[in-house]
Request: fold
Amino acid sequence: MGYFKQKFRNIKKFPIWIYYLPARLLQLYARLFFRIRIVDPNNYIQNAQGMVSVTWHNRLMFFAVLFPKQMRKRTVAVVSASRDGQYIADFISVLGLGSLRGSSSKKGANAYRGGIRAIANHCNVSFTPDGPRGPRYVMKSGPVALASMTGTGVVPVSVNASRCWAVKSWDRFQIPKPFSTLTLILGDALEIPPDLTVDELEKYRQKVEKALLDITFDP
Reply:
């Protein structure tokens, strides 16, 4: 058993076709077993281009599949540069999302440069700002720094399940229970000024963190 486990851990990248069936099953599962509500008063889903968004790490299970295809095609997600991050990047590519590889702990500068290019090309850049290791619901400053550099705003986005299981992990990753309600909420964009000082960066980091917490609801 240990031999096969080690062999699996040594695989850094699977063929893309491996992910097609799980991705389609996840989309079908979401449609058949959940009531889905969309709260988007500013119509960002249809109109947002060149924005930064933030979503807590434990809300990611159905995050991609709740957005229409056209929104996914103009969104890139910041994904860890680790081996597990490669699996995630390949999986979301099947759903139509691009990825930027990097995090606060590894190759962050690569993701930052990629984010600047993506926004210049009118794509939206999605962060999980408390990842990859937490603490849970504590936001890092990367999304605010990118928004300040590119002259755009930060949109808080949450996926709230009316009922869910919580995994015993650092983020208490949520698995929504069948026949519950999934609510996708896109809050108001917070405009971020250019050329922030260190103190100003922290001030706006706290503002964005609060805005995201304000639309985050645990069952």
Remarks:
- Strands lie at 35-39, 52-54, 75-79, 98-101, 124-127, 153-161, 164-166, 174-176, 181-186, 190-191.
- The chain has eight helices and ten strands.
- Residues 20-214 form one domain.
- The chain has one domain: 20-214.
